[in-house]
Amino acid sequence: MSHAHADHARRRAAHLRTLASEMLHSPSMTLHTHSTVDTWHGPQAQACNQALAGAQRAVHLAIDDLLDRAWRLDRDADELEAAAIRIDRLRDRRVDEAAERA
Known about the structure:
- It contains two helices and no strands.
- The model has no long low-confidence stretch (mean pLDDT 92).
């Protein structure tokens, strides 16, 4: 059963990494390149640029969080897989011992 749980955790981790990549490469992450003094200026432009920069920082923090969670899921999957292997080996050893006694 732990093998299935490990596979599920790895799929979730891969999905989180895909989502993080999609967020990073979203067109909204390059909007600041179009909002320069050549485009517009003044207090409203400055306020908008500051809000955009804040939103992009928030997205970068969310991306970092997703990647951290993906890393943790992969680590958990490794631990689940190792536990499943230990259980399988123990089960095989007990079956072999039972067969030797019979």
